[in-house]
Structures are given as C-alpha cells and as structure tokens.
Design brief:
By secondary structure, the protein is mainly beta. The protein has one domain: DNA-binding pseudobarrel domain (At1g16640 B3 domain), CATH 2.40.330. Helices cover about 10% and strands about 40% of the residues. Strands 1, 2, 3, 4, 5, 6, 7 and 8 form an 8-stranded mixed sheet that branches. Strand 7 and strand 8 form a beta hairpin. The chain is globular. The mean pLDDT is about 90.
Length: about 130
C-alpha cells in the first residue's frame, strides 16, 4: 500500500473542503476533459466512503479539493477537529490493462509525544486510549 499524502487538518479543511496537495493528483485517473473524479475509499472500519475530487477550471494551478458535499459526512462521522490528520493510501491491483486502484482513508488524532515523536491513532481506536 502506497501513501498518497498525509495532512494535518486546518479549520477550513473542517468547515469547507479538504484541500488536496497537487502532487496527489497523480494517484487518480480523471476522465478526458473532466475536472472532477469520484472515488471510493475504505476507512479503518471497512466503511466505504465516496469522495468527489475536483480541480478548478481556471488559473495557473489546479488547486484540487475534496468537495464539501462528499467530505463533510466523513468529517462529521469521525468527529474531526483542527490539528487532527487524514491520510490517503492507494493500492494497485492487477496488470496494466486491467489495473484497479483501491483507496484507503484514515482519520487520526495525536494522542501523545513519545521520545520527541508524535504518536497518531485512528479516531476509531481513541476509546482504547481512554480518550
């Protein structure tokens, strides 16, 4: 499984759309001429989430975002807060002709700093830490 990106969430990522790093666009296949692609990602509980990834039509940079309509149900269900983080992964299955991309998403919260390193836990596992 390959990490696409990890992002510490800002208030605007929580309240509006999740801004995606431009380099992460390489992990997605946009239909010819399209500026939006829908993809499914599985979370830590094997729940499937449908996300709409969109790039802007004008301007020098694509500025990719997960649209609010598809991102907010995930934010609400996971109880995400600023300073939490989200991680997207991709797994490629099959040969070049029949290649399938499977995506995974993790919502995480920093629970402690141990020996100078941040320790992140999937939000689904927080009760195990008494949080």
């Amino acid at each position: 499984m390959e990490l696409i990106f990890t992002k510490k969430l800002k208030p605007t990522d929580i309240s509006h759309a999740l801004s995606f790093p431009t380099h992460a666009l390489e992990a997605f296949s946009f239909p010819e001429g399209a500026h939006t692609v829908r993809f499914e990602a599985v979370d830590a509980t094997d729940t499937e989430w449908e996300f709409d990834l969109s790039t802007r039509l004008t301007g020098p940079y694509p500025k990719p975002v997960l649209l609010r309509s598809s991102w907010h149900p995930f934010v609400d269900q996971k109880g995400l807060l600023p300073e939490d983080r989200v991680a997207f992964f991709m797994e490629t299955l099959g040969e070049a002709d029949g290649m399938i991309r499977r995506y995974t998403v993790r919502a995480q919260r920093k629970v402690m700093v141990l020996m100078g390193q941040d320790v992140w836990v999937d939000v689904e596992d927080l009760p195990l830490y008494g949080l």
